[in-house]
Amino acid sequence: MQQDLDRAAKYARWETEDLVRAATTEAFEFTPEALTAMRRELARRGCAVGPEKTMAAGAPAILEQAPAGIGGALLLLIVVLGVVSIQTLLTWVGVLGALHQPVSRVIAAAWACIGAYGLACCALLVRKDRRAPRLAALWFIAAVVLGVVTSVHNYSVTGTFTPLFLFTIFHSGIWLTYLSISKRVKATYGARAGW
Hints:
Blueprint: H1 2-12, H2 16-23, H3 32-44, H4 72-96, H5 102-126, H6 132-158, H7 164-181, H8 183-189
Helix pairs in contact: 1-3, 2-3, 4-5, 5-6, 6-7
């Protein structure tokens, strides 16, 4: 009963266009229970979506039960994003007072802001906010851009190259790919959850 209420609340937050698409053309990606909840929400809004059986012919049965909710790699993403954000925020806030060059201070402040933004993304991911995957994707993109800026600035000041941003690019690339193709992300945050 609680799962039905959770599903109903989740689909009540979706836009009508997304619900119609999910309940019809993308129906094979959802469980029968999820489709029933979607159809109930659409009926509540006065929209008809057609026959009960909208599963695409020949779609593999395993796609019927797309995983939903926070678990698996999605849970790992939230934990990693949270830990990295806390570490980033604390590190750069601590360094901010010791820096004397204006550019270095701006970079440190930007890193601290990215740390705080990452924590906000974690909260939205946990709350299952529909915007969360896109906002998390922006966090990874911002981390890569700021990593490159930091490395270029360090090279111009010290003359040494720190390839740390290469790890950030690799790490961000993995999570951006996951956010864009994950069925769990789409089932949890909505049919258009990919960035």
